[in-house]
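Good morning,

Both structures are done.
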Amino acid sequence: MESAALSAISRHLLRPSSNPHHNSTSEILPLRSFNVAPLRRRFNSLSTKCHHASSGNSSANPNFSCSAVASDTAAPASDNVSTPQLRLRRLVDEFVSLEEPLDRVKLLLEYATSLPFFPASARVLSNRVMGCTAQVWLSVSTDGYTMQFSADSDSEITRGYCACLIAVLDGASPEEVLKMHPEDFAELNVVGSSGKGGVQSRVNTWHNVLIAMQKRAKAAIAEREGRPPVDPFPSLVISPGGIQAQGSYAEAQAMFLSPVESKIKELVSVLKEKQIGVVAHFYMDPEVQGILTAAKMHWPHIHISDSLVMADSAVKMAEAGCRYITVLGVDFMSENVRAILDQAGFEKVGVYRMSDAQIGCSLADAASSESYVQFLDNASKSPPSLHVIYINTSLETKAHGHELVPTITCTSSNVVQTILQAFAQVPDLNVWYGPDSYMGANIAELFQQMGALSDEEIKEIHPGHDRKSIKSVLSRLHYYQDGNCIVHDMFGHEVVEKIKELYCDSYLTAHFEVPGEMFALAMEAKRRGMGVVGSTQNILDFIKNRVKEALDRNVAEHLQFVLGTESGMITSIVAAVRELLGKRGTGSPKVEVEIVFPVSSDSVSTAPVDGSHDVASLGVVPGVVAGEGCSIHGGCASCPYMKMNSLRSLLRVCHQVPDEGGILSAFQASRLNVKTPLGRSVADVGCEPILHMRHFQATGKLPDKLVDQILGKNAESMS
């Protein structure tokens, strides 16, 4: 549901090389002559007068004034001195003079016939432009001061797009290429009659070919200025022939993707013998996930997912006869599993965590702080108010919050629709979201963007809203500003700048918890069909869908994805991609999928690797063979808390149950028998916001009980 909402917003708001063995500078070829005379002759034939204004033609481009055109055309009319902006103005002028969409398409096809010859030898993966429905190839030549482009496609419409871009940008300086924006071409208004999906795919073509041109321009500037090549992020390349790791961090991840068979057999044997189910979060250690993924083929009661689904899966396992549930996650996840099992009548099913120490979570800790209590106290003084709390918090936090302010939980997949529905359903409502500050800021930014849409476009996102209602809610949306996930916090300025330089033409995935700069970059990629913003499941689904589309095209492909979330996702991604690639018969065109791991400089260890150092003094989590490491602050997008769930602990717990001697007492998930300040069971009150969310997911509306609580009509139910 959330992915659709974000897609609608990005739709209306208007890699290094696809070959992993090519870096950004290897494609900068020696300067060569390039004949665009057939395209330029068209511009020479255009009038430089602002004839639209004089004729009263309302279809003229409103961004181009007569005075501006007159000023530019006062210069000599030679193509050698005409700027890309002037050439674009002439191009737009020509297209907008045609009132009928079919005539504009015909003109585009005429441009396609003028596209210079593109040799078959240049139709290679390193020249492919990703994100286009058709196959598009782009070749670049430069001396560092002038860019020369050639392109081709297996679609005539797309060839026309490429011809227009080349007519405008060929011969420009790298700086002039970088000044061009995708929106500058929107006035061409070539939409055809293929429906919304076709229109959007054509807009994406403009965007993605231009982005590819600009990536080459950035590389040309860097080479001209003598800057050394920027080292790429580590990555894994998945192909039908296996997995190739690039960079030591990727090697550490890949090490466990082919688990030891004896470990698989040991785990499966004890799970079957003692009827143990396993629920694990996507962010688990790669060794554990590798073993679990393989073991699942022999024992069905293993499930790897995001936090919400873990408890549901545990109930299904108990219903199927499992006597014990092992939870691989942080403590609030095991608490949730325990409480949900109890509510479902499975009090006798044992629930075990994977450490005798606390397995914390920075977000859950933020929601239990004094400042968060103060945040909720302010909410309670501003009726009517609704507290929307992220699912990744403890039951105790949910319970205490619900007694202060009527509360509903949310996930990164449904938070936007939850808040929009609440505003639509309860007049003059104040919404208080927490504890993730980045997600709160991203939600506020989304609503700001929605305010610029038309009423019709907003109703596609949520039928209960229009421009007036969206603008009215902006002042009534409050979010906590002192909480974040230590993993997603690392996707800051340094990482974003490197993505812009090396991976601007790649598919970009980002969790909703990332900082605003990364969020904006992912939303920009999403607008041109090259990105996703959402939950871990949204990210996995996006990658799978892009791979399916590539396989359906039945041509050689190299798809590159930047993984904007915890690196533990890689095991599930590899398993899904391998399954898809395995369905292809021998002799099919080769499809490769590259997963890029953003690593900040905070995650680079300069300590010796000869064993002479004291590991306890390092700011890294051991496990990486050299160079790159994992900062305890999440510098390599790897959660140190999640990594406390080891294979050794899982096997120990499984072998030890039933725990007749009490050896595993510290491993048992907490059963919350404590009371809230109002004397109610924490487990009961803490589960109620979750039940409210489940009602919303099933019906699309807030439950009447919650609405009554918000309006103060059912105060006794809160006490």
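Second structure follows.
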Amino acid sequence: MMDEDDLKLMEDLAQKASFLTRDLSSDEPVHVKKRKHESVIDKYEKVPRRMQTEPEKELIHLLPIKDKDGIIPQTMEKPVLDVAQNEEEDTEEMEEAEDFSEEPLPVLTPEEMAAQRRQKLQERKMHIAALASAILSEPDNNIKKLKELRAMLMEQDPNVAVIVRKLVMVSLMEIFKDIAPSYKIRPLTEAEKATKVKKETQKLREFEEGLVSQYKFYLENLEQTIKDWKQRKLKKSNVISLKAYKGLAEIAVKCLCELLVALPHFNFHNNIIVLIVPLMNDASKMISKLCFEAVKKLFKQDKLGYASLGVVKVISGLVRGRNYNVRPEVLKVFLHLRIKEVELQKDSEDIAPKKKFMTYKEKRKNLSRMQRKWKKAEEKLERELLEAEASESKEKKLKLHTETLNIVFVTYFRILKKAQKSPLLPAVLEGLAKFAHLINVEFFDDLLIVLHSLIASGDLSYRESLHCVLSAFHILSGQGDVLNIDPMKFYTHLYKTLFSIHAGGTNDDTGIVLQCLDVMFAKRRKQVSQQRALAFLKRLSTLALHVLPNATVSILATNRVLMQTFPKMDLLLDNESQGSGVYLPELEEPEHCNAQNTALWELHLLQRHYHPTVQKFASHLIVGAPTEGSGALSLDLSQRPATELFEAYSMTGMTFNPPVASVTPRRKVPSRLSVSISNHDTPI
């Protein structure tokens, strides 16, 4: 144990630096200062000694030699290069490289640069063509060349990078369209990979696996190109400018649209749908139009409905995810869906394979009695199998179409409920007008109330209100016949707003009005009173004076249908009044305007119209619209519906339809008076 005094002394010494750094074996006092001038010899003596040894030589072991005494190992010293000599050689090489780099590069003129660029581009084109032709000629053996061709999507030469990448994109797209099989390639299971198969089967598996992997990488390249352009990102190499990236992105979108339409059955089709549908709402009109046309074409050619269902799901999610802030064209694409009962029956007949059976004479001639018996049983079985297959495909299609329509109607109803002032409302009303006959009866009452409230609010344009009326009557003309609903308010709205159509911008709305009149009168003639039909006939005749010739022709064709459908319409061809009251054209109620007390004086004006077809229709209606005789119309005009006549005589191309016959100018024949005057003027 230490005393307290010794312990205190040790603590004091520990606080001083010299206690820690001092050599404890030295006898010098602690506080002695170091000598300022230490001799050079003492310093040298303190440096540790090292023996200068030669570097160990590295030995190379050779093959041993065997003699009488035994095996003698053989070695050889590895030659050591002189370091100084190596350094001299390195310095000489660097000097030569510097001298080489210091030589000025040849300066090319613009013509030489353009020629050099054309030469490079031609070489790349030939290489692309050689690879593509090799793949198309033997896709099984040359599937690995797809990777080489796809590597050219990363062309780094800034002079030709943009054009080469575009060419490779389009070339790969055409190759995949050509060599892709007509079925979806599924990945092999572990058990299938472990089993031994024939060489042909193994070769086919390798081809399919390579095709799917290269197709996947190609789609990823297209997607990355579009993303880089959308995010305004450039690669580190900066080979392509942002302006050029826009052109690359447009080509990538075109390729995706082509693959969407051409390969709806192949792998990664849903991935392409997820890429294309959001681009329908893109700010670029060109890209948006490309995607819209591709989806529309896909809907028109999709018979089964798998691809249509996938697109509808993505569109519904997009509209909801963007809080209904999308372009109306995104919803208008629903109008091109192939969901009709007539097309379903037609498609099921197309899909069912046609089987040709032998005739009775051929069986008697070529088959024995027992063979005929077996053939009869075989044909019966085949017929049953074909019927089962057709019914199964039809049921599957109906199921897919039902699911698709449910998603479409859910999207429409959400907009009607949450976004009534959205610019999507016209597209929704137009869609409801087309698919209203397929809506479930349970929704009819609520939907009609919503449509009437939209019309009564006054926030809709005239075209939108016409779509509401058309939707309501489509509902009532289909399954809605069983409902006890009076659509008088929709008749009244159309009657009082007919004069909103004129020869200006609203002339194009005549087509929707014609559809409304067809479903309101021709398809519901048993529920329409005579007073209502007379009021509409008179107002339509007055409207025919205010519109362009194509609208006038179609309105007069509608009047012809009304006069042939409803009895006693010829009351308006007589100028004597029928019953009490005076015709009130300003009254908004068609049932109470006393239309039976007026006459169709407008037809006399239309007989003098400058359009020959209008004159024919007016003359035909004045004599009571007969179906035969001298006052009957030609078959070309009488058998065509009003909507078709409206399109046929359209003047959108700023041309007169039918064209005006050119009049050849007559040659002037000089009169006797002018001849006599000219004779007197001649000098004598």
